[in-house]
Amino acid sequence: MRRTVCALLAVALLASCSSPDGAATGSATSIVIGAGSEPENLNPVLGYAPDGAAKIFDGLVSRDASLALVPALAAELPTASADGLTWTAKLRKDVMFSDGTPVTAQDVVFTYKSVLDKKVNSTIASRFDAVSDVVAVDQQTVEFKLSYPYAPFAQQLALGIVPAAKFSGTDVNSAPFNTAPVGTGPYTVESWRKGDRMVLKANEKYWGGAPAIKTVTVVFVPDDNARATRMAAGEFDGTVLPPKLAQTYRDRSGYRVVQNPSADYRGLGIPSELPFTSSARVRRAINLGINRQAMIDAVLAGSGKPAATPVSPHLKDWYAAEATFAYDVSEAEKLLDEAGWRQGADGKRAKDGQPARLPVLYPAPDVLRKELALAAASDIAKLGIDAPVEATTFELMLQRQKEAAAIWGGGDPYDPDTAAYTLLHSRYAGQPGYVNMTHYRNSTVDTALDTGRRSLDPAARKQAYADFQKAYVADPGWAFLVFLDHTYVLRDKWNGQQTQVEPHDHGLVHAVWWNLERWTPKQ
Amino acid sequence: MIRAIGRVTLRRLAFAVPVLLVVSFALFALAKASPFDPVERYFGVRIIGASPERVAQLRANWGVDEPVVAQYWAWLRHAVTGDLGDSLSLQQPVSAVIGDRLGWTVLLVFVGFTLALVLGLVLGTLAAWRHGSWPDRLITGSCYALEAAPVFWLGLAVLYVFALQLRWLPGGGVTTGAEPVSVGGVAVHMVLPVAVLAISQAPWFVLFVRQNLLESFTQDHVIGARARGLPDRLVVSGHALRTSLLPFLTLLGARLPELITGALLVETVFSWPGIARATVEAALNVDFALLGALTVLATGVVLLGNLLADVLYALADPRVALDG
Fold this sequence. Notes:
The complex is a heterodimer of chains A (about 525) and B (about 325).
Chain A: H1 2-13, E1 30-35, E2 61-63, E3 69-71, E4 79-80, E5 86-90, H2 105-116, E6 131-138, E7 141-146, E8 187-193, E9 197-202, E10 215-220, H3 224-232, E11 238-240, H4 243-246, E12 255-269, H5 280-289, H6 292-299, E13 304-306, H7 329-338, E14 342-343, E15 349-351, E16 354-355, E17 360-363, H8 367-382, E18 389-392, H9 394-399, E19 405-410, H10 416-424, H11 443-454, H12 458-474, E20 478-491, E21 494-495, E22 520-521
Parallel strand pairs in A: 1-10, 1-11, 17-18, 17-19
Antiparallel strand pairs in A: 2-3, 4-5, 5-7, 6-7, 8-9, 9-10, 11-20, 12-19, 12-20, 13-20, 14-15, 15-16, 21-22
Helix pairs in contact in A: 5-7, 10-11, 11-12
Chain B: H1 2-33, H2 38-43, H3 52-62, H4 68-79, E1 86-87, E2 92-93, H5 94-129, H6 134-148, H7 151-165, H8 183-217, H9 220-227, H10 232-244, H11 246-269, H12 275-284, H13 288-316
Antiparallel strand pairs in B: 1-2
């Protein structure tokens, strides 16, 4: 408040306009990032950075540039018992939180038990549905008990570990920790002015070595155009921009445009219970009739990859290259004819007097989804199907899931289970919420997804996901359209930036600065 | 006189209680009827694939499916004891959310409003004094144009010219880079938002002052003063302006809600870390606790502003009866 009063006095004195000082042109030991999204909180328990790259925290494991798991707070990668029901993690010795207290098994137990606590409003609890108990065997050993074998469990252990002592006597849901956290990570939070910016300082005692970049300022500007303006004005060292806005930096010296691949998909969910699209032939025809490459060229300015299944081509261990859809209009028309939907004199298809009609919905504020919806609907209409496009909200898209197609998005590059299981397993068909929104049912897909989830043998898992993709493209429940690339503009002042395939989230965590703590200034 | 003011203050305060109750309840009912679902907003993209049991658990924790009267009663019971609850969308106590941001908004609104008043008085007087001249026509014309221009449009235009093309001033926030908050830094950063807020509010004051001055020029005491040969400047500032300022006080109270709306748009355009942007967030996330507290706060400010205007009016003009 005193600051406010001082500022008031200063304004009274201020008569002339001075030019803004270009702080971003300063030393390479500090960086200013323009981020498109702001975290709601900085507490991993509530859902901050569950896939690592958290800056302020470390998980038991983290990921290298190729997304392979590497031990972090765990001394070695956690291992499963022969039945897959017990996972054991040994902690690294002598790791301290930034307040100087040591990390113990109790902190790990507290972190995971809080996530699972029914009274804690965690957005990531579903990831740990298999966990029945977490116990500290001794000061350095934690055991996770599962209620069923869950092969990709180690992928979920990148969640940051919080110090239990900081939460004694407070409600996790509104603890002061949520905005002023203490972790083991390479950075600590110096200040966070919500809605404006966050300043991170290097943790000089970081167990992995002190970062070379000492100060990280993250400025939150949700609007793409405002962010582009402030990048152009020299305020930022790096920012995320839509591909078209990033193009202007291609030839500017001192800047680099980085295009990172992601497993962030956009897809058209096709209702399996709508009479017209209840036949696998019709849904395959729609997939074959969509020109995905044209969509990428026109809507995404070339920065994306065609999608056929929720398994990204960047999940190299799991992706089946043959499970794709060619753009083949004549084959699509043949399939529609075979299914009994024949073209009338006006070019529109119908069967037994019923017209072929598939409304396409998208959430109104999302410009990208709107453009994809229009492109997909125009391709579908070329097959003789009436495909009206409607702007709506997520809530209404969900309510109309049985009678309209809708543009959905999601996906992460870590494991096919997280990308596909709740989306396509018939167990979730008709359940409330955003699970199996298309009411897709295919017993071969179910079996393959279950096998993939429960098999600890990597070869058996690989086979299961190959089976899944093959069965899915023969009977698709969606028309997955594209995997987006994320585009960044970066001042060319640092070494050490590496490409890592990104999940949907690319604000402060992940993104081009996922390994910022290892960047070094260029000479 | 003092006793009359005390009486009217007490009566207004007594009246404010039902007003606050009605407004806050109407807000709960409206938010409940909105198509937004607080639980889905809270999950964000993670709602895709979240297990139905977990989502149901969160609904139960928050009691979002309870009837609106029950939710309102739960909020009210705690609010009267001073416990404003926790913001669901920002995972902070509501008092912390408001405490962090209110100072910034007060700074913006106070300076902006003062500047608008000064502009209103100076330009309004100038226009009336030189009635029909080209400065008058310029001022009046610009005022009508600005009254029609939406605040956010004005904000974006100013941002484009001064932050991007001329690069004289920073385009948003309250500091540059990793700098700590400093008096000079904040002063530079607030020039554009304050200017936009003041310029968008000033036209009403300018036109009001001009109109009232023109009317008072035709009144007996002004004509009398002129007839006695007093200097023109003295007649305008001493005789005409004083009497025409009275209704101005009422206008101040009446413009307060507009000012709050204007501040909301300005804060959004200039990434100003104030309370107005939190209000939008709260509304979109159907964050009852935060929304309720902010509504009561805004309503209270408006009621207080009107009371203050009435009291000042009575003090300035003894003919005005307070208990009307």
